[in-house]
Amino acid sequence: MAITICPNVETCASIGREKDTVVADLDGTLLRGRSSFPYFALVAFEVGGILRLFFLLLASPIVGFLYYFVSESAGIQVLIFATFVGMRVSDIESVARAVLPKFYSSDLHPESWRVFSACGRRYVLTANPRIMVEAFLKDFLGADLVLGTEIGTYKGRATGFVCQPGVLVGKKKADALQKAFEGTPPEIGLGDRHTDLPFMTLCKEGYIVPPCKPEIKAVTSDKLPKPIIFHDGRLVRKPTPLMALLIILWIPIGFLLACLRIAAGSLLPMSIVYHAFWALGVRVTVKGNPPPPVKKSTGRLGVLFICSHRTLLDPIFLSTALGRPIPAVTYSVSRLSEIISPIKTVRLSRDRATDASMIKKLLEDGDLALCPEGTTCREPFLLRFSALFAELTDQLVPVAMVNRMSMFHGTTARGWKGMDPFYFFMNPSPAYEVTFLNKLPQELTCSSGKASHEVANYIQRVIAATLSYECTTFTRKDKYRALAGNDGSVVEKPKLKANMNKVMGC
C-alpha cells in the first residue's frame, strides 16, 4: 500500500462498522489542523504564564527547521522540551483535562469523525505526548486506547525529555500498534502523511485524510458523544504562532488598560460609569425596562434582580446599566475583588437559615442582585438555579446577562480568582449585554402557593429562552469537580505577592 494510492477517507463506508476497530492519527487526521504548536502553547501559557509562552515562541523557528530539514521526531522533541521542562505533572494533567478539550473539539475533522465514531473500538496513535491528549480522546471522543509519546518525569515534574521508544512517528507507531494488538489487525487505519504509512499497512483498509480546505467546517459540539459544557483557561482563541506573539505584545498594554478601566468603574459615580466605559472601549448594551428604585420610606422590600452568571462582574454591569450601585450577594470571590469592587458585596455563608436572614435584611435596605447558579458558565447553558431566593420575596426581576471577550476569559476554576476582573478588562473591547425581563407576576411567586423550586426553574427557563441557551441541572460542585477537583470554595492565599508573581499564568 502506498500513501499516494490510498483512497480518500470520503470513500470509506461508515455503515455497519460497529464491530470494527479503527486506528487514527491525531493532527491532520482526526483534527483538521496539522500543527500541534497551538496546543503546546496553551499548556505553556496556562501552566507557565507569559514567560513560558515567550520561551516556546522563541523555540518555534528551531522546531520548524528540525521538523522540515532533520526529522519530525527532532522537531517534536524540542517542542516538548520547551513546553514541559520543569512543569509539575499534575499541572499538565489539569490543563489537559480542563482546557485542551474545548480547543481540540473545535477542530475535529468531519470526515474522519464520521468513520471514527462509526467503529466499535477506537484507537489513536499520535506523536503528541499522551498526557496532553488522552483526557480529550477518551472522555469526549470515546477512544478505547491512546498510544502517544511518553514524557520523562522526576519527582513529580517533567524533565522535558521523552521516554523510550521516543517520539511516536513512522515505524515507532507501527511497533506500538503491533504490541497493542498482538493478533488480528484492525480493520481501518486513518492517516494524513507518509510517516503514517507504516501503521496504516498493518490495517486491513487504509484511508488518507487530505489537507483540510478552509471551507470544511469542524464538527459541531452537538455531534460529540457529550457536549463540552465546562472548560477553563484564560485564552479565548487558539494560540497560533502569530496569535501567541500578539498575546505577548498585548498583555503589558492590556494590563495597564485594565487597571484604568477598573479604576474608572471603582472611583467614578455609578451614574457616569456607563459613559466612562464606552470612552475606554468597554461596550455596554441595555435592553428592556428596568424597574425604578424602591424608596426606603415606603417600607417595601427592594427588588431582587435574578441574573444569569457569566463573570463575577455581572452585578457591576447590572449597576452600570441601572446607573446606581446595586449590592450583590456572592458565593465565593477573592478578597482583592471585594476590595476593588465599586458596589457592596456580601458573602453567603452556605448555611440556609443564615443566608436567608441576611438576604431579607439586605432587601429591607433596597434592591439586591443575586446569581442563583452559584458559579459561571462560558457556554450557552444555564446551570441549576438555587431556589432559596424564591422563598424570601415576590419582588423578582429576571436579568439575562451575556458578554463578549475576544482574547481572555474573565473567569477561572483553577487559577487565582483575584485576576478575573483584570483579565476581562484586558480584552481590547470587552462587551456586556444586560436585558431586563418583566417582573415575575404575583401568581407565579411563592406567596401565591408556588413551590420555590418551581419559581426558580421558571425563571431559569425564561432567561434561557431570552438568550437561546439550554437549561441544565448541573451545579457549582459539578463544574469544579470536573475542572479543578474541588467544590469551588476560594482559599485565601497568605501572601498576595506570591499570587502576583503568577498573575499571567493563573
3D architecture notes:
- This protein has 506 residues and is of the alpha/beta class.
- It folds into two domains: 9-213, Rossmann fold (3-Layer(aba) Sandwich); 268-505, Glycerol-3-phosphate (1)-acyltransferase (3-Layer(aba) Sandwich).
- The protein contains 18 helices and 16 strands.
- The strands form five sheets. Strands 3-2-1-6-7 form a five-stranded parallel sheet, with helices on both faces. It has a five-stranded mixed sheet with strand order 8-15-14-9-12, with helices on both faces.
- Strand 2, helix 7 and strand 3 form a beta-alpha-beta unit.
- Helix 2 (37-69) runs antiparallel to helix 3 (72-84), helix 2 (37-69) packs antiparallel against helix 10 and helix 11 (270-279) crosses helix 12.
- Residues 492-506 have low confidence and may be disordered.
Mean pLDDT, to the nearest integer, reads 91
Helix content: 40-55%
Q: DSSP strand (E) fraction?
A: 5-15%
Predict the CATH topology of the largest domain.
Glycerol-3-phosphate (1)-acyltransferase
First-last Cα distance: 49 Å
Number of helices: 18
Radius of gyration, CA atoms, in whole angstroms: 26 Å
Shape, principal axes of CA atoms: elongated
The total number of structural domains is 2
Q: Specify the CATH class of the largest domain.
A: Alpha Beta
Structural classification: alpha/beta
Q: What is the makeup of the main sheet?
A: 5 strands, parallel
The number of strands is 16
Low-confidence stretches: 492-506
Looking at the overall shape, the CATH architecture of the largest domain is 3-Layer(aba) Sandwich
